[in-house]
Amino acid sequence: MRTLVLLIIAAFIFCANCSKEQEQQKTIEGTWGIVDLTYKTPDGTQKVMDAEIKNGTATTDFYFMKDGKFKQTSNMSGSGTLETYDGTWTLNGSKLIITLSLQGQLVDVDYMCELKNELLVLTRTSPDGKMSIINTFKKK
Question: Which domains does the chain possess?
Answer without folding.
Answer: 2-139 (2.40.128.280)
